[in-house]
Amino acid sequence: MNLLVQTSTDDGTFHGPSITEFFPDIVLFEGTGFDINRIMLIRLLAVLALVIVFWLGTRNMKMVPSRFQSIIEMGLDFVRVNIAEDLLGKVDGKRFLPLLTTMFFMIFTMNFTGIIPGLNIAGTSVIGVPLVLALISYVTFIYAGIKKSPGKFFKNSLFPTGVPWPVYIIVTPIEFISTFIIRPVTLTLRLLMNMVVGHLLLVLFFAATQFFVFTLGGWFIAMGAVTFAFGFAFTLFEILVALLQAYVFTLLTAVYIQLAVAEEH
Q: How far apart (Å, rounded) are the C-alpha atoms in residues 62 and 197?
């Protein structure tokens, strides 16, 4: 699947992007139980690129850092200061920093593949990665709560203090659904749908450009220039979305952990 998809058929009509683009054909190991399609290959490349970047940036640390080392340290400090320590404090922030850092940079890198020529689709645009990350966030939240207050975590989560006991008939089911069901679902869907919609819009703009310029021609080339300008602007916007979604997902994970380790638990 390329960014410039087939936009017209023999009758000259325009065909925009479809949801089938998120279910590409198998490209490696078909029928072996380890099938790899194009999106899975992009995920593997994103992880490999992330490992290489951090290995190159940290293999020869110096007191006076190089420009590349400074960029890596700025990225790590951003997660440490603005997410981990800001929400969890120095002790718990340091404790959960490896998880939060890995989550932030993994999501950003896989989001960013959506605008890289030749890749053109985010590794987070199919539910597998967002769901796994949401489950990791969910399990970490529960682990942190049980570790902090064994025997009291679920009680305090489902039966908040200061509520008259008859009201628990209403409050407890709501707390259960909102805390233990809605959180992982919203984490998954927020990341997934942003990447799906972003990809479809980019394909639509650039496919329309191809259709106007190469299929219709003539005065429609001016329309192609307009759709190309929108596509270029939205590509820049997708960079911001890629970063923002990584930040929001990691921030919410830290918020949930903070709620689990709060003193009232």
A: 42
Q: Which of 74, 134, 136 is nearest to 99 (CA)?
A: 136
pLDDT of 250: 97
Structure tokens at 265: 């638990």
Cβ proximity of 205 and 228 under 8 Å: yes
What tokens appear for 135 in the block? 């489950």
Query: What stretches of the chain show up as alpha helix (H) in DSSP?
Result: 38-58, 67-79, 86-112, 128-148, 153-158, 168-177, 183-210, 220-261
Buried b (16+ CB within 10 A) or exposed e, 46-71: beeebeebeeebeeeeeeeeeeebee
- Asked if 196 contacts 204 with a C-beta cutoff of 8 angstroms, the reply is no
pLDDT for residue 264 is more than 70: no
Residue 244: how many CB atoms within 10 A of its CB? 13
pTM of the full structure: 0.89
Q: For residues 179, 182, 188 and 192, what is the CA-based torsion angle, rounded to 10 degrees?
A: -150
* φ, ψ of residue 28 in degrees (nearest 5): -140, 145
CA 62 to chain centre: 32
User: Which residue type is seen at 114?
Assistant: G
Q: Tally Cβ neighbours within 10 Å of residue 89.
A: 13
